[in-house]
Structures are given as structure tokens and as C-alpha cells.
């Protein structure tokens, strides 16, 4: 970017060329064979057409590729979001990722993924743009941390794995995003107006934290990965050859296709060489002009030799193979909705000045019975932080007084703000592209009103001055904290919580204090995108109970009532820490608000994120990661640690790569790039054709190839070998079994969390505790017990050896300790490898 290395903090991203071809993993062999048969018969323009979007607003979806009708391949529809089908109707608005993380429930994670996939398929979406594991949640104020599953790589990894498997079981291609280091909204992208920030991440931190969930998503067989907007180590993600080709495709063995984030592409040849496979929505630096970095320009780049034919063949093979891998060649619906309008008819290509019109919405209802799953996720994510004097559950005889606009409806209508770009009424999700419209909304007010007639509602954030209370009256105060994506600013917050900080919005903290001054019993319900500071009122004597209901989606009220009135015990656990003060975080995770470029965001806290940092530094927190109370209590006993596969220092040698498709590498004849005769083109729509194909072949490529550019294949990395990495990393090293007994008086679900402590003998600093596995019980009746058996893999005990470039483990697990408990600060059992297990 023209800056010297010293002004870039010494962070640079080494080159990695050429991009490795896909197809060498056995699970994908059949799909690649089918793709080969098709691609080997494609013309140059047919290939190019599948790699590039047709332009923003040039079709029904947020992005669509060109098509290859001779082979039955339609324009592939790419559509948000990770929590529901965006910008349409008759869809379900599920709880957001952070709520899913809080459930710690693998079955629910899968069920929600499957339901999302069914809805996407029902609408004709080929590629659903989720789940999100980047941001990882490094910055508590980061605008999009709620789209992912929590501030822990294992929780993110398991959330992604289950969601992807569920989604893709329906034939939809999931898109794991955003790769990688995308932790802040402000200055996130490079455009004609600004240069995006660089997330400067050292190799070990990258592997042990940010890459961890992506590796698990690739292992789940994810079909596509979206590159982040930002730079990593001063190279834009969309053309960072080390990230795309070295790490994602070679080391993690990713077999699907890599797509840009929307308008995140900044170069044509550069991104192609770096390993990018698909450009979305296809436009160049300035959208809507009919310009593209690829499409017709990629055609030219192939004809003049700037981009090797082999690279194009790999791009399109990856895309077509993925389409086959999920069976989209058979009975897959075409889009039957428009993300541009809810009208039945309208412009087919609203991005064009002269668009033809037609039917754009068929109003297909895809909700099925997904409200049940949506409610279950929202309910089982509700996290009870505090419950003094067993204040909860309430009874319908209790005399209730409800305060806060977060209990009610948005007076302007549930979908009145585009992409949820406002915080009015109960907060069901953050804002931006990671949203969907609400088909309906059950507010807390409505749901509470449905079960009791003893509730009075004050849907206001100002405590009424004339209120008096008796000792038996109970106040329930609703608070919210919102954030979202950067293209919308809400109340001064440009995505990130710049203005609001980590405090409740709309004077919520004062509302609680005012209620606590009048009522002797106050229950606080919080809808929040992430960490929130509670110190202004948490210790007030009348604040008896606190529930974090996260971001519940359309079933906000019903799920809350399920818990408030005791039909279900709360069973959610915190997917991040609630600190005492924002200043308790390392200063390196603050928002970077410096200008101009180059903005350097140095990840100097390394692998010490959230509880890893607080525990290592003995910093007291208000509520630890993993914390969550129930109406009952659980006893942990009978731990047994069994060695399954003895650990060697490094994993066994990786499997060798299987073959990849071999095509002719000759440049196709320029005549293939000519416009078809009598072609009726749409103005500004992006096409792969050239007006003068012959002149393309005669232009000498003046392209300055990047340093380190090479077409000689790299030696396959020793830590790779299959999807996710060397398959031996997932060998089960130990099984930990234990008994959980409900020793309280009510039914409830426990979440057993396993944290690993690695020995200092590894020679590397590691956090004292790292979550590596968890399991949630079914509902246990009072007195009931269950034995949980949890597998821990080689990777769970490994650190990234930056010199050897492989995963290093303590031989035979010597010195490893495994803790099991109910949170990172409530550890009940400990097993030390080679010694006995005991209670803590
Ligand atoms: C930008 C967002 O970062 C990404 O998550 C989304 O999928 C695309 N826009 C498409 O809307």
C-alpha cells in the first residue's frame, strides 16, 4: 500500500503461489469427476461467467453468478444471512449466533442449521452466507460479534461445525465467513474512499485462535468461504495469497470455493493469482457502473496470458464441484423471491437503468415448524447470572410491574428499520446484513400478558415518578445493548459500539437503579449483542435476579416466559465474560479510531483473549465465561480419564494429496470471447464477452507479478492432509467421562465444560485454561444422573509450533490437566494425565 514496513509495525504477509488446485480429498472425488466432465467442455466465457457476479442488484439475490445454460447450471444465488433468509418474507427469524453459542447445545446448533438450510433451499438460495466465526469476539465493542457464537475458538468451532452440517444436509452450500481477523467495523474495507485496517496477527495466534473455528468448518465440509474486508499483515484478505492458497486451500485442504465479501475485491489479476475463486457481487471499484475486476476483464486476462488458464479452470471446477457435492444439479429450486422488493412484480435487474420487469416474488412460505426450533434455541440460550433468594421462577400470582421499551414492540412496526438499523422495542438481533425480516414478533409484553393478568406494563425507559410499591411487588426491568454492521450508524454507533460503550442503551442502568429504589425485588432482563457492564446496579440489594436473553429472534417473548415462569429451567451459559470494567481488557482490544491509513491493529494480546486473559492475569470478573445458573443444582462425580490414542510430539505424517483434475492449459481461441449473435443484453449487467476479442490476445501483459510469484506447485504443508488439516489432529487422545446428577429439586439441564491446562514443559506460554469440549445434558429430573463421555482430540492438546509449522503436543499427554465444571471459574473435577482424577 505504499507504506514502509516500519510504519506497518513490521507485519508483512509472505507470498504463497501458485494457488493449489482442488479435488484431492476423497470425499469430493465424485463431485470433482462430474465437474471435470462439464468444465472440460466449457468455453472460456462459460467458465468466466460462473466466477463473477452479474453486478449488484442485478438479480433476485444479494449476489448471483452468471450461468452456464448448456450444462444446466443456473445463475447461482448467494443470499444472507446467518440467522434467516434476509430481505424476504414468510421466513423464520432465528436467534442470532451469540444466542446459539449460549445454548452450548450441539443438537440445537445442528437443528437450527438444518432449519436455516431448509428455508434457504425453499427460497431457491444456492449459497447461504453463514455461519460467522469471524469476528471471533476479540473486541467487546466490535459491531458484529453477535453474529458468531462467542469469544472462544472452541465454542465458535463447534457452533460452526454443527451449523454447517445441518445447513448442508439440505443441499444448501454454506458460506463460512469472514476469513479472517475481521474484528472491527470502522475502517473495515478498502474502497475508493479509504484503506481498510490491517489486522496484524502472529502465526501462532492466528492458528490457535482465529483459524481454529475455520479449520473446524472446513472439516465439516463447508462448501464456500468468504474473505474478510480487512487486510491481514498488510495484505488485503481478498488477494492475500498466504491466507487463501497457503492456509485455507493447502494447509486446511479446503475443497470448495473462495468468494469475496461484497465489493471487497481490490484487484483483478492479483486476486485471481492469490487463489480467489468468485467475485461478488461482481462490480469493480465503483458499483453500478457496469465495471468489473473480473467478468470481461478476466476473459482478457486469460487471453493475454496474465492469468494462467489453469487458475481459471481451478476456479470454475471448484464452483461446479461444490454445486454437485450438494446435489444442486437435481431438483434444486430457482430463486422465487427478490431481496430488492417485497412486491409481486418489479424490475428483474434493479441495478440497471433499463431493466425488464416481471414476477419477482412468489411469496413461498418456508417456515415449516421452525418456530419450535427458534423458540428452543432462544429459551435454552437464556443465561441466568444471578438468582438471590430463589426469586425466579415467578408465579402467575405474583404482582408484576414491567419497565423498559425493550419489553415492548417497535411502535413503527417490527420491520420498520432496514436491516434492523434501529433499536426500538425488544432487541431481537443486531443490525446489518446478518439479519432477516421478522415474520412476526412475540414481544415480552405480549407473552407475559398471555400467561398472567397480574402484570402492569410501563413501556418506557424513564421510570415513572408516581410509582409506589408494596413489599411483594416485583419489578422486571428490560435493558438492551445493540450493535451491527458499519454501513448503518445507529445513535452514533457506526456498527461498533463507539458511543454506547459497554453500557446499556437508553439509560437502562438508571432505569434499574430507579426501580431498585422503589421495589424490594427487581428482576433484570437484558438483550445484548455482547459484553455489558452491570456494575451500576448489580450489587443493589433489591436486584435479585438477572437474565441475559441475548438476541432471541422472533420468539423473544415466548422463550423468556418459558423460563421466567418456570416451565423450563434456564440452561444457557455465558459465551463471553462479563468484566467489572471495560478497562480490565487488554488495551489492544479497544476500537481503533485513527485516521488516515495505514491503520495498524496489532493483536498483541495474542492468544490471551477474554477469559484466557482474565484468568492468566488474575483479574476479577463479574461473571466468568461459561457461567449460567439453573433453578436446580448439579453435582459432578466419578471422573474417569481414558487414553485412546497416545500422543506423539507431532502428528503422524500427513496423507499424500490425491490427484486433481488435469485440463489442457492452452489459451483458448479469442473467438470464444465474442458476443453471441442476436444477444439481448441488459444495460450495466456484467458479461464475460469482449467487443474485440482479437485485440485482447495481442495486448502484452504489463502486469507486475507479485514478489514470490511462481507457477511451480508448493510442497504440501506437513500440517495438512485432509479437510481441516492433518486428519490425525482429530484422533481422539483422551476420553473424559463423568457423572452429572441433578441434586436440586427441579428439572434442569447441565452444561459440562472441559477446560485443558497444558504443561509448561511444552516450552510455550499457554493460557491456564482453554475450553476444549462441552456437553449439555437432556432435562434431568430431580435426583436423576447421567454419564457424559467427552472425546478430546490431539489438536485439543496441541500448540502451533511456528518453527516446525506443525501442531506440537506433550508426549503421552504428560503434565496435561483436564478440568470439568460449570464455568471457567467453577471447576468441579480435575484429572491429571498419569495421576488420579479428583474433585477440585
Ligand atoms: C457484507 C457483509 O460483510 C457480509 O457478511 C454479507 O454476506 C455481504 N455484505 C452480502 O450482503
From TrEMBL:
Residues 697-724 are annotated as: Disordered. It is an enzyme of class 3 (hydrolase). The keyword Glycoprotein applies. The keyword Hydrolase applies. Residues 750-824 form the Fibronectin type III-like domain. Its EC number is 3.2.1.21. It catalyses: Hydrolysis of terminal, non-reducing beta-D-glucosyl residues with release of beta-D-glucose. It comes from the Eukaryota. Keywords: Carbohydrate metabolism, Cellulose degradation, Glycoprotein, Glycosidase, Hydrolase, Polysaccharide degradation. It holds the Pfam family Glyco_hydro_3_C. GO terms for molecular function: beta-glucosidase activity. InterPro entries: Cellulose_deg_GH3, Fn3-like, GH, Glyco_hydro_3_AS, Glyco_hydro_3_C, Glyco_hydro_3_C_sf, Glyco_hydro_3_N, Glyco_hydro_3_N_sf. GO terms for biological process: cellulose catabolic process. SMART domains: Fn3_like. Residues 697-713 have a biased composition (Low complexity). SUPFAM superfamilies: (Trans)glycosidases (SSF51445), Beta-D-glucan exohydrolase, C-terminal domain (SSF52279). Pathway: Glycan metabolism; cellulose degradation. Belongs to the glycosyl hydrolase 3 family. PANTHER family: BETA-GLUCOSIDASE (PTHR42715), BETA-GLUCOSIDASE F-RELATED (PTHR42715:SF2). This is beta-glucosidase.
Amino acid at each position: 500500500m505504499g507504506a514502509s514496513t516500519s510504519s506497518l509495525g513490521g507485519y508483512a504477509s509472505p507470498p504463497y503461489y501458485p494457488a493449489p488446485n482442488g479435488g484431492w480429498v476423497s470425499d469430493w472425488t465424485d463431485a470433482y469427476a462430474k465437474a471435470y466432465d462439464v468444465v472440460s467442455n466449457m468455453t472460456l466465457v462459460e467458465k468466466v461467467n460462473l466466477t463473477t457476479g452479474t453486478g449488484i442488484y442485478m438479480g433476485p439475490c444479494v449476489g448471483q453468478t452468471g450461468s452456464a445454460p448448456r450444462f444446466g447450471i443456473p445463475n447461482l444465488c448467494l443470499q444472507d444471512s446467518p440467522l434467516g433468509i434476509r430481505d424476504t418474507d414468510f421466513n423464520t427469524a432465528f436467534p442470532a449466533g451469540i444466542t446459539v453459542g449460549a445454548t452450548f447445545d450441539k443438537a440445537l446448533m445442528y437443528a437450527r442449521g438444518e432449519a436455516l438450510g431448509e428455508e434457504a433451499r425453499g427460497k431457491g438460495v444456492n449459497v447461504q452466507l453463514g455461519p460467522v466465526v469471524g469476528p471471533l469476539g476479540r473486541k467487546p465493542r466490535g459491531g458484529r460479534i453477535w453474529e458468531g457464537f462467542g469469544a472462544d475458538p472452541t465454542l465458535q468451532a463447534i457452533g460452526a461445525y454443527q451449523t454447517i452440517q445441518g445447513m448442508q444436509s439440505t443441499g444448501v452450500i454454506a458460506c463460512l465467513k469472514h476469513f479472517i481477523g475481521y474484528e472491527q467495523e470502522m475502517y473495515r474495507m478498502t474502497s475508493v474512499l479509504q484503506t481498510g485496517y490491517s489486522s496484524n496477527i502472529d502465526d501462532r495466534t492466528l492458528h490457535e485462535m482465529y483459524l481454529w473455528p475455520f479449520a473446524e468448518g472446513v472439516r465439516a465440509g463447508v462448501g464456500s468461504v468468504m474473505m474478510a474486508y480487512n487486510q491481514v499483515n498488510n495484505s488485503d484478505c481478498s488477494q492475500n495469497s498466504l491466507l487463501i492458497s497457503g492456509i485455507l486451500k493447502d494447509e486446511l485442504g479446503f475443497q470448495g470455493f473462495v468468494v469475496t465479501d461484497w465489493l471487497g475485491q481490490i484487484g483483478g489479476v492479483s486476486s485471481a493469482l492469490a487463489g480467489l475463486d468468485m467475485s461478488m457481487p461482481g462490480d469493480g471499484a465503483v458499483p453500478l457502473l457496469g465495471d468489473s475486476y473480473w467478468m470481461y476483464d478476466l476473459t482478457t486476462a486469460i487471453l493475454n496470458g496474465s492469468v494462467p488458464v489453469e487458475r481459471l479452470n481451478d476456479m470454475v471446477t471448484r464452483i461446479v464441484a461444490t454445486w454437485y457435492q450438494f446435489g444442486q444439479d437435481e431438483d434444486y429450486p430457482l430463486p422465487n423471491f427478490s431481496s430488492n422488493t417485497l412486491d409481486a412484480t418489479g424490475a428483474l435487474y434493479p441495478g440497471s437503468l433499463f431493466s425488464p420487469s416481471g414476477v419477482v416474488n412468489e411469496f413461498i412460505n418456508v417456515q415449516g415448524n421452525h418456530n419450535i426450533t427458534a423458540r428452543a434455541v432462544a429459551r435454552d440460550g437464556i443465561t441466568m447470572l444471578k438468582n438471590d433468594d430463589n426469586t425466579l421462577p415467578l408465579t402467575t400470582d405474583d404482582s408484576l410491574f414491567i419497565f423498559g421499551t425493550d419489553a415492548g414492540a417497535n411502535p413503527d412496526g417490527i420491520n420498520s428499520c432496514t436491516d434492523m438499523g434501529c433499536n426500538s422495542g425488544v432487541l431481537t438481533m443486531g443490525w446489518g446484513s446478518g439479519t432477516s425480516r421478522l415474520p412476526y414478533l412475540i414481544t415480552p409484553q405480549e407473552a407475559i400478558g398471555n400467561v398472567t393478568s397480574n402484570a402492569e406494563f410501563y413501556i418506557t425507559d424513564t421510570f415513572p415518578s408516581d410509582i409506589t410499591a408494596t413489599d411483594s411487588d416485583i419489578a422486571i426491568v428490560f435493558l438492551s445493548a445493540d450493535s451491527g454492521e458499519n454501513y448503518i450508524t445507529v445513535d452514533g454507533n457506526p456498527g461498533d459500539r463507539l458511543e454506547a460503550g459497554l453500557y446499556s442503551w437508553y439509560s437502562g442502568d438508571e432505569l434499574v437503579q430507579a426501580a431498585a429504589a422503589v421495589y424490594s425485588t427487581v428482576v433484570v432482563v437484558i438483550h445484548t449483542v455482547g459484553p455489558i457492564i452491570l456494575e451500576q446496579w448489580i450489587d443493589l440489594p433489591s436486584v435479585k435476579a438477572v437474565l441475559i436473553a441475548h438476541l432471541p429472534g422472533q420468539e423473544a417473548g415466548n422463550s423468556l416466559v418459558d423460563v421466567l415462569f418456570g416451565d423450563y429451567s434456564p440452561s444457557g451459559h455465558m459465551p463471553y465474560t462479563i468484566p467489572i470494567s471495560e478497562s480490565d481488557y487488554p488495551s489492544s482490544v479497544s476500537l481503533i479510531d485513527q485516521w488516515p491509513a495505514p491503520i495498524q491493529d496489532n493483536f498483541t494480546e495474542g492468544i490471551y483473549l477474554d477469559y484466557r486473559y482474565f484468568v492468566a492475569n488474575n483479574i476479577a470478573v463479574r461473571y466468568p465465561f461459561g457461567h449460567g445458573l439453573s433453578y436446580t443444582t448439579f453435582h459432578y462425580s466419578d471422573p474417569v480419564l481414558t487414553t485412546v490414542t497416545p500422543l506423539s510430539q507431532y502428528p503422524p505424517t500427513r496423507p499424500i494429496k490425491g490427484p486433481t483434475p488435469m485440463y489442457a492449459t492452452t489459451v483458448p481461441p479469442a473467438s470464444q470471447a465474442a458476443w453471441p449473435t442476436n444477444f439481448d443484453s441488459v444495460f450495466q449487467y456484467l458479461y464475460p464477452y469482449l467487443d474485440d476479442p482479437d485485440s485482447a490476445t495481442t495486448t502484452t501483459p504489463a502486469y507486475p507479478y507479485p514478489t514470490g510469484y511462481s507457477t511451480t506447485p508448493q510442497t504440501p504443508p506437513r500440517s495438512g492432509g485432509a479437510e481441516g488439516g492433518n486428519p490425525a489432529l482429530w484422533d481422539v487422545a483422551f476420553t473424559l467421562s463423568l457423572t452429572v446428577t441433578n441434586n436440586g429439586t427441579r428439572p434442569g439441564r447441565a452444561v459440562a465444560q472441559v477446560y485443558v491446562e497444558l504443561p509448561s514443559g511444552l516450552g510455550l506460554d499457554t493460557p491456564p485454561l482453554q475450553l476444549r469440549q462441552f456437553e449439555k445434558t437432556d432435562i434431568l429430573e430431580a435426583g436423576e444422573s447421567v454419564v457424559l463421555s467427552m472425546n478430546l482430540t490431539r489438536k485439543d492438546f496441541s500448540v502451533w509450533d511456528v518453527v516446525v509449522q506443525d501442531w506440537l503436543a506433550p508426549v503421552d499427554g504428560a503434565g496435561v490437566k483436564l478440568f470439568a465444571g460449570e464455568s471457567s471459574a467453577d471447576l468441579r473435577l480435575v484429572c491429571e494425565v498419569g495421576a488420579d482424577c479428583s474433585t477440585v
